[in-house]
């Protein structure tokens, strides 16, 4: 049985997808949080590249090996714990969703870091960029049995978790963003009602992203 | 020096029901090239569709492309989007994605880290403010690239000394992602690989693979 140690900041951000996977799969792990930016800078200078392959977090330490890159970690855990797919084509569909959610996340991060033009940026992304992506997501969802289930196949996968994870922030910052996408909205609520996700969301650290 | 006879000398065996692939992109290497290298390496035929700037708005409006973006891959009657989802799918189909969960995670990790570099490049490429652009370019050269290339050199060396490929004993998507991205990094920093001897040798090794060399000779020459 592998021992997992997930090292990340106290935010949801890039680490949360791996956390969702571990929560949904009911897998125990050590959840090591670092205060950003202060402690992170100190850790980087003391442990640096020997511990953090790309000088970034999150990292997953497992069986003496370190895996970096948030999506690589999440996919590795999903594969191991029955939250991916066996069929390579289904895997590609899952990846397509998680990559799209990552694109959305990068925009949210842009907004979060913006100093002078925050509101302008938020309007631009929410009005001009997200609708096209959400339309695409709703369409892909509907292609799977009419859209009343999950993104791929007939059970929860990494795609649904990734969607719920990033959508939480999207909706938190601008409620109603999913109003035109009833199937997506229903899926988000469905994932957030799953017992292990409920349990995790109740106890996870408070963060704006 | 390691060779890879098993892939270089055989064509992937396919059943009669081999899918027909159609890869859609612009007339550029960009986000489609690592997929094109996979096709070349596997010796698998595909339609290499390239839209001009004039064609794209019409094609985009057709709604055929799930997120209105390219590249897309049409296969099994379905349109797949997202450059790395496509590349990983092809790599899995052609046996070049890593042989077990851990190897796949290592390949993914490298591909994603390289993608982060590409995003950083795109960002300062599009930056309009001259001051910010210069700062971003400088950060790219002095911080972003050294951090990534340092990490990649270490990872390569950790794989049995670094005279083969990134993961396992044969080329994977990680190696193809590295060389395609490397073409762009070279534009900003022509001698960058001089500081990373194993990476430099890897790049040469990949471009010397017979099927890759053949593809590079015949592919359209494009600026990007």
Automatic annotation (TrEMBL), chain B:
Protein name as it appears in the record: Hematopoietic prostaglandin D synthase-like
InterPro entries in the cross-refs: Glutathione-S-Trfase_C-like, Glutathione-S-Trfase_C_sf, Glutathione_S-Trfase, Glutathione_S-Trfase_N, GST_C, GST_superfamily, Thioredoxin-like_sf
Chain ranges of the GST N-terminal domain: 19-98
Gene: LOC100376457
Top-level division of the source organism's lineage: Eukaryota
Pfam families per the UniProt record, alphabetical: GST_C_3, GST_N
Family matches, as Gene3D superfamilies: 1.20.1050.130
All copies of domain GST C-terminal, residue ranges: 100-224
CDD domains found in the cross-reference section: GST_C_Sigma_like, GST_N_Sigma_like
């Amino acid at each position: 049985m592998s021992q997992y140690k997930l090292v990340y900041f106290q935010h949801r951000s890039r680490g949360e997808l791996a956390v969702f996977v571990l929560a949904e799969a009911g897998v125990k792990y050590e959840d090591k949080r670092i205060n950003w930016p202060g402690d992170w800078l100190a850790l980087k200078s003391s442990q640096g590249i020997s511990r953090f392959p790309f000088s970034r977090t999150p990292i997953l330490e497992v069986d003496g090996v370190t895996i970096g890159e948030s999506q690589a970690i999440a996919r590795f855990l999903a594969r191991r714990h029955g939250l991916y797919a066996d069929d390579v084509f289904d895997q590609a569909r899952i990846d397509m969703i998680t990559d799209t959610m990552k694109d959305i996340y990068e925009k949210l991060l842009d907004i979060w870091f913006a100093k002078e033009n925050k509101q302008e940026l938020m309007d631009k992304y929410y009005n001009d960029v997200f609708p096209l992506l959400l339309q695409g997501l709703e369409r892909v969802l509907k292609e799977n049995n009419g859209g009343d289930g999950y993104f791929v196949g007939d059970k929860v996968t990494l795609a649904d978790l990734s969607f719920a994870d990033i959508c939480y922030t999207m909706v938190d910052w601008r409620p109603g963003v999913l109003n035109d996408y009833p199937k997506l909205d229903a899926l988000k609520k469905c994932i957030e009602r799953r017992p292990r996700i409920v349990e995790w969301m109740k106890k996870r650290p408070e963060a704006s992203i | 020096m390691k060779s890879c006879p098993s892939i270089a000398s055989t064509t992937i065996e396919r059943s009669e029901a081999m899918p027909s692939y159609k890869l859609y992109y612009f007339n550029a290497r960009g986000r489609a090239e690592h997929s094109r290298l996979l096709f070349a390496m596997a010796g698998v035929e595909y339609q290499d569709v390239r839209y001009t700037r004039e064609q794209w708005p019409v094609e985009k409006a057709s709604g055929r492309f799930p997120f209105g973006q390219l590249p897309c891959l049409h296969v099994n009657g379905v349109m797949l989007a997202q450059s790395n989802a496509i590349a990983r799918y092809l790599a899995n189909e052609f046996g070049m994605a890593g042989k077990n969960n851990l190897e796949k995670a290592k390949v993914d990790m490298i591909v994603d880290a390289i993608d982060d570099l590409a995003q950083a490049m795109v960002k300062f490429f599009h930056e309009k403010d001259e001051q910010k652009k210069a700062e971003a370019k400088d950060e790219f050269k002095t911080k972003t690239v050294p951090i990534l290339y340092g990490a990649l050199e270490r990872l390569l060396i950790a794989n049995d000394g670094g005279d083969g490929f990134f993961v396992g004993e044969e080329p994977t998507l990680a190696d193809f992602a590295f060389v395609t991205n490397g073409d762009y990094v070279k534009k900003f920093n022509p001698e960058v690989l001089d500081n990373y001897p194993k990476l430099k040798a890897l790049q040469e090794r990949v471009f010397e693979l017979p099927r890759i060399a053949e593809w590079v000779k015949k592919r359209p020459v494009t600026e990007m």
